[in-house]
Amino acid sequence: MTVLEQGKITIHTENIFPIIKKSLYTDHEIFLRELVSNAVDAIQKLKMVSYSGEVDGDVGEPEITISLDKNNQTLSVSDNGIGMTAEEVKKYINQVAFSSAEEFIQKYQKDADQQIIGHFGLGFYSCFMVAKNVEIDTLSYQAGAEAVHWSCDGSPQFELSESSRQERGTTITLTLQDEETEYAEPARD
Fold this sequence. Notes:
The protein is of the alpha+beta class. It is 25% helix and 21% strand.
């Protein structure tokens, strides 16, 4: 058999994004589990980096906060984990199905007793099932890192800018679609 051609399959984001947003998961509530899982992973990664001696000072107590704002129709998940640089945001957020977990686990394999939950890089995009806009404010643990703000309205277009965030970690804020505002309620049925 003669090979006629070899190459890479391309994916057009304009076609795949609606599938990810509407069909990736059947249960809309999954987005919250995915965001909390990502926050747990960020804290675990910080611990692993700390064990390897790459963090200056105390990492503090792990903290994940979920905030609801009914008036502004927003839901936010914040952590004090590893955070991201602008380059990491471009690599891990802007590339669909590129998981930071795989790369991270390979680098810090000696600390294999620490579990990283996410491995496929798709969970974050479940946010777009319920959100009309998603924003990330993040500051990496790395010395001299600058805080970054990422924003996307559910299309393949995004904006990356400076952030005023002062503390290490990440906050993901969802502006909920009008039909999904129940997620901004403190107690839903």
